[in-house]
């Protein structure tokens, strides 16, 4: 098997259907691929639909395992040379599997653990492709509101990177977004796949940190695109407390596992202080709510 494509579904029946259809529309004929859908206990009719889709391998979990653990099920069952993780709210608009495969097969790129495409949203605008690996320095720079220390902040900015148009057709990045990760299975076996302690957010960042620790790299293939619909809805609450909690917990775990517990506590305090200062200077209650959630991560 050349490529196992893994999609984690959680009550996203229609989006997952679109992702699967796009794979079969743009899959190359010369590569041996399989599509594995791991379902996190969906209750939206996904089970009834996908267990009858003969194109895919469908695995239903009786509990919501989160992003990383669900992907690990598919990864562990695969005997393919490469793993392609595609979010359920992402889809293909071109054949990216061939350039991904050829890039990783190139002898000059044998130290590549992962590659991904340039990501766009549903309107064709550049979306998040990934980021640098977060550091304590970056967190300190964020406390400067990205205003007092703009050059320093940009240097260490860890998230929200949308594209590097001046870096050529491919370039190294700290971490490819989990929306589209093309992974070398042999390196996953060596370094480990997703840490099961993470439920949602920062799991691909921590895994990429381990890639780098073992001397491997991640890349963006800038001339190829994948659509990711995350954040495309215009109707959002001011703050989603559940998402904020998972995000803060994920960030704490990342720093604890990659930089130590003291760094994790320090960074968490910095982000909490930053939210309070934003609340004071921007006169918005949402920042105080976010600060409370962040500080609760320390308990």
UniProtKB/TrEMBL annotation:
Highest taxon, organism lineage: Bacteria
Positions of transmembrane segments: 266-283
Keywords, in A-Z order: Membrane, Transferase, Transmembrane, Transmembrane helix
Residue stretches making up the Glycosyltransferase 2-like domain: 4-188
Molecular function terms from GO: transferase activity
Pfam family, one: Glycos_transf_2
InterPro entries: Glyco_trans_2-like, Nucleotide-diphossugar_trans
Protein name: Glycosyltransferase family 2 protein
């Amino acid at each position: 098997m050349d490529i196992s494509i893994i999609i984690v579904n959680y009550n996203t029946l229609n989006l997952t259907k679109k992702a699967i259809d796009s794979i079969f529309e743009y899959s190359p004929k010369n590569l041996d691929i399989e599509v594995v859908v791991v379902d996190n206990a969906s209750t939206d009719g996904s089970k009834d639909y996908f267990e009858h889709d003969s194109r895919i391998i469908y695995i239903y979990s009786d509990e919501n395992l989160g992003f990383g653990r669900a992907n690990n099920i598919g990864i562990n069952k695969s005997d393919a040379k490469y793993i392609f993780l595609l979010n359920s709210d992402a889809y293909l608009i071109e054949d990216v599997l061939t350039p991904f495969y050829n890039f990783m097969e190139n002898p000059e790129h044998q130290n590549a653990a992962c590659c991904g495409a340039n990501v766009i949203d549903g309107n064709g605008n550049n979306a998040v492709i990934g980021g640098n690996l977060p550091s304590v320095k970056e967190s300190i720079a964020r406390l400067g509101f990205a205003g007092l220390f703009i050059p320093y902040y940009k240097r260490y900015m860890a998230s929200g990177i949308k594209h590097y148009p001046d870096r050529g057709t491919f370039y190294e990045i700290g971490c490819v977004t989990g929306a589209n990760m093309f992974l070398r299975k042999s390196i996953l076996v060596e370094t480990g796949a997703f840490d099961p302690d993470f439920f949602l957010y920062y799991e691909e960042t921590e895994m990429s940190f381990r890639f780098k620790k073992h001397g491997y790299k991640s890349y963006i293939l800038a001339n190829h695109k994948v659509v990711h619909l995350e954040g495309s809805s215009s109707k959002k609450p001011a703050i989603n407390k559940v998402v904020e909690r998972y995000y803060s917990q994920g960030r704490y775990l990342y720093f604890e596992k990659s930089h130590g517990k003291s760094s994790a506590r320090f960074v968490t305090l910095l982000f909490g202080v930053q939210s309070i200062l934003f609340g004071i200077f921007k006169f918005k209650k949402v920042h105080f709510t976010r600060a409370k959630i962040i500080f609760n991560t320390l308990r």
